[in-house]
Amino acid sequence: DGGITQSPKYLFRKEGQNVTLSCEQNLNHDAMYWYRQDPGQGLRLIYYSQIVNDFQKGDIAEGYSVSREKKESFPLTVTSAQKNPTAFYLCASSRGSHEQFFGPGTRLTVL
Amino acid sequence: QKEVEQDPGPLSVPEGAIVSLNCTYSNSAFQYFMWYRQYSRKGPELLMYTYSSGNKEDGRFTAQVDKSSKYISLFIRDSQPSDSATYLCAMSQSGGSNYKLTFGKGTLLTVNP
What we know:
Shape of chain A: globular
Strand content of chain B: over 45%
Largest interface: A-B, 26 and 23 residues
Radius of gyration of chain B: 14 Å
Structural class of chain B: mainly beta
Shape of chain B: globular
Order of helices and strands of chain A: EEEEEEEEEEE
Largest sheet of chain A: 7 strands, mixed
Distance between the termini of chain A: 36 Å
Structural class of chain A: mainly beta
Distance between the termini of chain B: 37 Å
Number of helices of chain B: 0
Strand content of chain A: over 45%
Number of strands of chain B: 11
Number of strands of chain A: 11
Oligomer: heterodimer
Order of helices and strands of chain B: EEEEEEEEEEE
């Protein structure tokens, strides 16, 4: 059953903590993406990766970091430098076309 | 002017109505156009994908692209309560290997039984 999985579904972070969001895909897609969604803001691109061991900053990369050591995995770390991290985080992948397919999302809340 | 404009609604219609959702854009380099459906607290689901101008139909859904007017539409025929969701338009440029999508902010649709 192919698809994109994200974990955890809900995540709570204390001030000053780093947290890592998981994204895994078994679609054999080359490209993977991380977006942030805030109410009334739409989706904003954080980072994207077109091949293993390579990634580029999106529009709002400050306070975030990523790695792409495997084709199937693209974890996102929300660092303490991200001043307003409470949001819904969405991971997506594409096979080299413009169609992107999304995971179920992780809702991060700062306590 | 934002690159992609989409009326946030909310839009409320009775079951069986024809729904029209729209986006306008300013970047004439956009060539690929998508519509996503997003249920509350879920990830977006790709509904329609079109290239350049023209129409594309899939069941009750029809996507239209008018590049001369920089205007795209999604029509839903015989709308159902299960169509109640936020609809996002997205678009991208041709050329290169960067498939960055630019999204509208979404239109919240409610179909009342």
